[in-house]
Amino acid sequence: MPIQLLSDDVVAKIAAGEVVERPASVVKELIENSLDAGADYIQIDVMNGGQRLIRISDNGSGIEAHELPLAVTRHATSKLQTAEDLYAIRTLGFRGEALASIAAVSRLTLVTRHRDEDLGHQIRVDGGQVEPARPVGVPAGTVISVENLFFNTPARLKFLRSENTEKRQITTVVTRYAMAYPKVRFVLLMDDRETFRSPGSGDLNDVVVRVLGLGTFKQMIEVEGEQLLRGGGRIRGYGLISLPELNRKDRSRIMIFVNGRAVQDNQLSYAVSQAYHGLLPKGNYPMAVLMLDVPADFVDVNVHPTKAEVRFRESDAVFAAIQRIVRPAIVGHTRTQYGYGNPRSSMVGPGWDRNTNISPGLLFTDDLVANNAAGSEQETLSQLDPTAIPDGPGRPRNPRTLPILRVVGQVGANYIVTEGPAGMYLIDQHAAHTRILYEQINTLRADSREIVSVPLDPVPVDVSSKEARRLENVIAFLETIGVLVEPFGAETFVIRALPQIAADVDPADLLAGIVRVLVAIQEDGIEDALVQVLCEHAAVRSGQILEHGQMRELVRQLERSPSPHTSPSGRPTLIHMSAEQLAREFSRPPD
Ligand code: ADP
Ligand code: MG
Fold first, then answer.
1. What is the whole-number distance in angstroms between the Cα of residue 96 and the centre of ligand 1?
2. How does strand 406-411 pair with strand 415-420?
3. HEC states along 82-100?
4. Are 42 and 327 in contact (CB under 8 A)?
């Protein structure tokens, strides 16, 4: 859309207001413009807390030369034409006010080259006085410099807070947008020193690590879910929320984004903290980075001058959506009995509910344990220990051994492609799942916990007399891992029950596997070998197509496996290709 003057009628309808309160508001408006222009690189230079200079450089679309004067004219915008458009805004800006308002209280220089034009142009506005544009040779994109902010409005200048306060505010603005747009690389320089950089990998986790630090990040869990709206459409939410161990005395770290816009809304942050009801001591609040995607016509962004507040068509649905996304994840996590997460309660939303019927090969610890009634939330709370994250009676959660990996997809029904902060990880689904099950069973054995088994229609299997003797010797042990084998005549055996994780396994196959192990392995390694055989049979097969949720759960468990790199039999479970390796493979020049 070209930049056009809004009609008086539309102007009357926009919630006009002062957008330039302080340096951080300038930074916010200019970043929004860069994002609206499709930039995936945005550099922010700030001098003296923004009072001397704020400069935003982007590689977005640029502005056509003939539109330059309009860009700095009040109520001229390329993002809105009619009053109707106000009801479904898809851009961050829409009022056509920011550049004009900023230019009125500063010395603004706009240098831009539209990506379809050969030559760039520069325009200067000094305290609202527009100077003629002149051509300049520049790369495509836009650089806007705002100097001497408020030089002509002494009253506002006087009310500026300390330089450090302004710097903090600017950092907040930049880091929020970096989280809302993980594909965009943000670089923030304060007085020529780089103070923040986001990798632009497209993975929210990577940005959150940079913003909140690795230590905090490690105490957060991923959430995802959906809520249908009465009027059609849906709210989709995803992000990271803190474990109850990590909390704050105020709600300032509950960060909520609606359609890529950071919003301050007490009701929404209340919804998040309510979801922790009973899990956090009074006066403590969680941390959250929560992205809500809602239909554009479901949210009214035209209610607040700085667009920091929004109004929803069905605000109760938003409240419900947040509860639905956050509550089960946090409660499920806190209730988990062992250090392997609980897929049933961490898979939330309508899409995930169905996954509770997933193939038995993907059942996890809770399904293995007899008598696994979870304690009440209060009991769980009383076990909390700030130094260890317990997932069950006295057992701290396993420490993370791999970075958080984002599942990209599945290749050849064999491998899970994931991405982490340090590049790509290709995971062998069968080897990895075997490793996970193996550790789960050994954890239960170490704790002398009973492994639940499910009865089967007995399937008779014939063995040789030598094999029969060996099998007799291990029947008692097999029972401890949930495999109930009984003699059925001299050289025939039946499997009467299998552990729930292996309920899907072909019993005759498993028995054949067990017999092979008995013949091949020496006495002292036999128990471990039997556990391995069981896990190999119970694990997801190669060639099995996995749903996204299943892959995520598998990866999430592998991330905390004490030995995530190999299967119990020593085969690799994953191949890591660092970003550098990938770049080398593609002969890319260094960044
Ligand atoms: P709004 O963003 O509400 O439209 P602004 O005053 O912020 O109003 O910007 C006016 C117009 O200038 C925008 O509509 C857009 O067309 C253009 N513009 C501003 N900044 C940029 C930028 N960084 N890249 C490309 N176009 C821009
Ligand atoms: Mg704007």
1. 7
2. antiparallel
3. CHHHHHCCCCCCCCCCHHH
4. no
Question: Taking a C-beta distance cutoff of 8 angstroms, is the pair 169, 23 a contact?
Answer: yes
Q: What percentage of the chain carries pLDDT values higher than 70?
A: 87
Sign of CA dihedral 547, 226, 86, 76: negative
pLDDT tens, position by position, 67-93: 999 999 988 898 888 877 777 778 888
Ligand 1 lined by 77 (C-beta under 6 Å): yes
* Average pLDDT for the chain: 83
Most confident of 168-177, 303-312, 354-363, 447-456: 168-177
Question: How many whole angstroms from 380 Cα to the centroid of ligand 2?
Answer: 48
pLDDT the model gives residue 370: 38
Q: Which of 528, 537, 469, 526 is nearest to 499 (CA)?
A: 537
Distance from residue 237's CA to the centre of ligand 2 (Å) = 26
Alpha-carbon distance of 11 to 76, in angstroms, equals: 10
Burial class (CB in 10 A: 0-12, 13-18, 19+), 154: exposed
Residue owning the nearest CA to atom 12 of ligand 1: 71
0.70 cut: is pTM over it?
no
pLDDT given at position 196: 96
- Ligand 1, atom 13: closest residue by C-alpha: 77
**pLDDT, position 97:** 87
C-beta separation of 404 from 221 below 8 A: no
Measured in Å, residue 111 CA sits from the centre of ligand 1 at 13
Residue 176 φ then ψ, to 5°: -65, -45
In the reported structure, the alpha carbon of residue 151 is separated from the centroid of ligand 1 by a whole-number distance in angstroms of 23
The three-class DSSP label of residue 304 is: coil
For residue range 518-547, what is the model confidence (pLDDT) as tens digits?
988 877 789 999 999 999 999 999 999 998
What does the pLDDT read at residue 415?
96
Would you say residue 373 has pLDDT above 60? no
For ligand 1, is residue 340 a contact (CB within 6 Å)?
no
User: What DSSP letter does each residue of 177-227 carry, written as one string?
Assistant: HHHH-TTSEEEEEETTEEEEE----S-HHHHHHHHH-HHHHTTEEEEEEEE
209 within ligand 1 shell (Cβ under 6 A) = no
Pocket test residue of 19, 25, 34, 36 for ligand 1, highest count of atoms within 8 A of CB: 36
Report whether pLDDT(342) > 70. Answer: no
CA distance linking residue 319 with residue 274, whole number of Å: 10
Cβ–Cβ contacts within 10 Å for residue 314, how many? Answer: 17
Is 33 touching ligand 1 by the criterion CB < 6 Å?
yes
94 lines ligand 1 (CB under 6 A): yes
CA distance 470 to 481: 17
Across the range 383-395, mean pLDDT stands at 31
Alpha-carbon Rg for the chain, nearest whole angstrom, is 30
pLDDT confidence of residue 346: 33
